[in-house]
């Protein structure tokens, strides 16, 4: 099993969720986060005062999937979340040793 962690722009969340659902994903976790990367924040003006925003709002998606579909889902996320502008996000893929469905006690891929 693989854990896919993707950080994307918040306005792309619904589009990415729909694409993942069409690709067969049955569940995922979403967290609102703040961070910075290459864009390293930006300057804004509020009520005439200029200030620096060091952390940019993002959305983090986490989903655990079978090994054989991980690459396909990474491609779905990448294509759907892409705007071509700085700050589109990142995707990380990690190995998952075990999964347990609390309600039924199922383990491994049966739990996802």
Automatic annotation (TrEMBL):
Short name of one Pfam family: P-II
Gene3D superfamilies, alphabetized: 3.30.70.120
Domain of life: Bacteria
Keywords from the UniProt entry: Nucleotide-binding, Phosphoprotein, Transcription, Transcription regulation
Family: Belongs to the P(II) protein family.
PANTHER family the UniProt entry points to: NITROGEN REGULATORY PROTEIN P-II, NITROGEN REGULATORY PROTEIN P-II HOMOLOG
Subunit structure: Homotrimer.
Protein name listed in UniProt: Nitrogen regulatory protein P-II
Native organism: Sulfitobacter porphyrae
């Amino acid at each position: 099993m693989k854990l896919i962690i993707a950080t994307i722009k918040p306005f792309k969340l619904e589009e990415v969720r729909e694409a993942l659902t069409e690709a067969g994903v049955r569940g995922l976790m979403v967290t609102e986060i703040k961070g910075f990367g290459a864009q390293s924040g930006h300057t804004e003006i509020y009520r005439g005062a200029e200030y620096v925003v060091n952390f940019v709002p993002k959305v983090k998606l986490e989903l655990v999937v079978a090994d054989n579909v991980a690459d396909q889902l990474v491609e779905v996320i990448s294509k759907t979340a892409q705007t071509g502008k700085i700050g589109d996000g990142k995707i990380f893929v990690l190995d998952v040793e075990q999964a347990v469905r609390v309600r039924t006690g199922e383990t491994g891929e049966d739990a996802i």
